[in-house]
Specification:
220 residues, mainly alpha, Heme Oxygenase, Chain A, 10 helices
């Protein structure tokens, strides 16, 4: 009995989940949470700013390929770009309501996260972006996180819109992504590229969260 592409990807990502989960727990620990949350918002603003351009470039790259999966994949990326459009503005609003502003210099790991996808889109296959998306949307904030953050940090409720919205949206987005992944006529090499992209993304996201979780002296 053959295993679907999404089940295979989920099994591989399960290997990275404990380490990523540990980094997430350090990020959201109560002591010093207010300052860490502000650092998190700044890093996420840089990362989310890259989301729509990545999707648009992946869609454009699909249009350049004579590939049985390209047309459907391009349509999916176009739809998802519209779903993600404006989310960087949510983060700016959250930062403003928290009395902060984005750092004009993006976090180095954020540059690696987005930059790796540009390379994969251009030089491997645009389907590799699915692995990146699966990690980010599969690691959505839990439903009550925003309320816990507000209670612990003392920041106004309006400073947590992005966390609240993504807790509601990303589960549905992940389901749609897996459905598209299973329907695409990808080659074995292309499916492997999605998995490698996903595992690389999980590693980088873990590094990002550990960095954000560190105190000013650099110790998690």
């Amino acid at each position: 009995m053959s295993v679907s592409a999404s089940v295979e990807l989920g099994a591989k990502l399960a290997l990275a989940t404990p380490v990523l989960g540990g980094a997430t727990a350090l990020l959201w620990r109560p002591d010093g949470l207010r300052e860490r949350y502000l650092r998190y918002l700044g890093a996420m603003h840089s990362l989310v700013t890259a989301s729509v351009p990545l999707l648009e470039r992946a869609g454009a790259r699909c249009a350049e390929l004579d590939d049985p999966s390209a047309r459907r994949l391009a349509a999916y990326y176009a739809r998802h770009a519209e779903e993600e459009r404006g989310h960087d503005d949510w983060l700016l609003e959250d930062l403003a309501r928290a009395g902060s502003h984005p750092d004009p210099t993006p976090h180095g790991v954020v540059v690696e996260l987005a930059g790796a996808q540009y390379y994969r889109i251009e030089h491997e296959h645009p389907s590799a972006l699915l692995g990146y998306m699966a990690v980010l949307e599969g690691h959505a904030p839990p439903p009550r996180l925003a309320d816990r953050l507000a209670a612990t940090t003392g920041l106004p409720s309006g400073a947590f819109r992005t966390v609240r919205e993504h807790a509601e949206l990303d589960g549905g987005h992940l389901h749609d992504l897996y459905r598209e992944f299973d329907a695409l006529p990808l080659t074995a090499h292309q499916r492997a590229a999605v998995s490698v992209s996903a595992l690389h993304t999980a590693d980088l996201l873990t590094r990002l969260f550990l960095s954000l979780a560190a105190d000013p002296g650099g110790s998690p």
